[in-house]
Design brief:
Helix 6 links the parallel strand 4 and strand 5. Helix 2 runs parallel beside helix 4, helix 5 crosses helix 6 and helix 8 runs parallel beside helix 10. This protein has 2 domains: 270 residues, Aldolase class I (TIM Barrel, Alpha-Beta Barrel); 90 residues, Immunoglobulin-like. It is built from 10 helices and 16 strands. The protein is globular, with a radius of gyration of 21 Å. An 8-stranded parallel beta sheet has the order 7-6-5-4-3-2-1-8. A 6-stranded antiparallel beta sheet has the order 9-10-11-16-13-14, with helices on one face. The chain has a two-stranded antiparallel ribbon with strand order 12-15. It is an alpha/beta fold and 377 residues long. The longest helix is centred in the middle third of the chain and has 14 residues. The structure holds alpha-D-galactopyranose.
Length: 377
């Protein structure tokens, strides 16, 4: 199976952590429909860690915890599919998951079969309790093979946090997306560190296998497993989401969709940003640090249909400005061309022909445009 855009959906971990159950997952799936998020493209509902019993059954199979999922995982999967959504689950390449539940080391084929029987469309595959003398490439490859051997189309969402230079080999082992960093927390410094750590690795992301910079924290509002009250507001969520879209990351929401605010919904459905994220060419952005405003970065990205994306991101904790002139991104004085830019947040258009753009930015804020080439007269 080839995927030609980063998957979009929701994952239970950021808000619910270990506190998952059937009702939460069903209600979230229903909320994806009622909020219009499904129509915007968010289609995967993913149960993260802590869904199983502590021991395998007598046949060596991992079994669901019936106290948490009284009707069983298969019934839940059927319900999610009946809503037109897709279903994802979680295991780990080590002996135990990160929360200490049985995982798939040396049981890859039997576990892949269990997931296929559940009707899973995506498997997130973590890296805790992995034996230090084992070779991660070999074991991720095994799960890649095991999933394919089931005959079902299952997205292999590998998650080894970028260790062992995984950007160089995750495509080879059959991963469709690969987590390239440690866990996100609801703080702007986490968004900054995660995104900056991938500036020199984004060229490894391409159709078929995308760099996954972790689940979204947009709209968590301080609630939940990785929530931190008071550290992020709508400006931070905006820049976080815009960066994930510019980097072409999977977009897995992590907030409680049942209680989502209109501002967060509007952001997560932003058509311009989603268009940039899903661009079929998946070009690596060219990233330039502003010479005059430290910690402000310009990202320029070729898009399909002869369009471009141009963004200014203020990583600093103080006001700054995006600042660039056409020749800095290749439109030389003699090119005869400029750009007509449309702001993805306000719809405002500006001409980018001969002059500098100087875009003032509040702390942690950003500005993103989609542009078209225009001839100068
Ligand atoms: C790791 C992963 C997280 C989450 C937890 C579950 O920390 O990186 O995304 O899956 O394990 O225990």
């Amino acid at each position: 199976m080839i995927i030609n855009k980063p998957p979009m959906g929701w994952n239970s971990w950021n808000t619910f952590g270990t506190e998952i159950n059937e009702a939460v997952i069903r209600e979230t799936a229903e909320a994806l429909i009622s909020t219009g998020l499904k129509d915007a493209g968010y289609e995967y509902v993913v149960i993260d860690d802590c869904w199983s019993m502590r021991e395998r059954d007598e046949n060596g199979r991992i079994v669901e915890n019936r106290e948490l999922f009284p009707n069983g995982i298969k019934a839940l999967s059927d319900y999610i599919h009946s809503l037109g959504l897709k279903f994802g689950m979680y295991s780990c390449a080590g002996y135990y998951t990160c929360a200490g539940y049985p995982a798939s080391y040396d049981r890859e084929f039997i576990d892949a079969e269990t997931f296929a029987d559940f009707g899973v469309d995506l498997l997130k595959y973590d890296f805790c309790c992995f034996p230090e003398n084992s070779n991660p490439l070999y074991y991720y490859n095994r799960m890649g093979m095991a999933l394919r051997a089931t005959g079902r189309d299952i997205i292999f969402s590998a998650c080894n946090w970028g260790l062992f230079e995984s950007h160089k080999w995750m495509r080879s082992v059959g991963a469709h997306i690969y987590r390239s960093t440690g866990d996100i927390g609801e703080r702007f410094s986490s968004v900054r560190d995660i995104s900056m750590s991938q500036f020199d690795k984004l060229q490894y992301s391409a159709p078929g296998c995308y760099n996954d910079v972790d689940m979204l924290i947009c709209g968590m509002d301080g609630v939940g497993n990785v929530g931190h009250p008071g550290l992020c507001g709508d400006t931070e969520y905006k820049t976080h989401f815009a960066l994930w879209c510019m980097m072409g990351s999977p977009l897995m929401m992590g907030s409680d969709i049942r209680r989502i605010r209109p501002e967060t919904l509007e952001l997560l459905k932003n058509p311009g940003l989603l268009r940039i994220n899903a661009d079929p060419e998946c070009r690596t952005p060219i990233i330039i640090e502003s010479p005059r405003s430290p910690m402000v970065y310009t990202m320029f990205k070729h898009l399909s249909n002869n369009q471009v994306a141009l963004g200014f991101f203020n990583y600093a904790d103080k006001p700054g400005f995006g600042d660039i002139c056409p020749h800095n991104i290749g439109l030389s004085i003699n090119s005869g061309f400029g750009l007509k830019l449309t702001d993805v947040f306000t719809g405002e258009t500006i001409e980018f022909m001969n002059d500098y753009i100087k875009a003032p930015l509040a702390p942690h804020d950003c500005k993103v445009f989609i542009g078209e080439y225009v001839e100068k007269n």
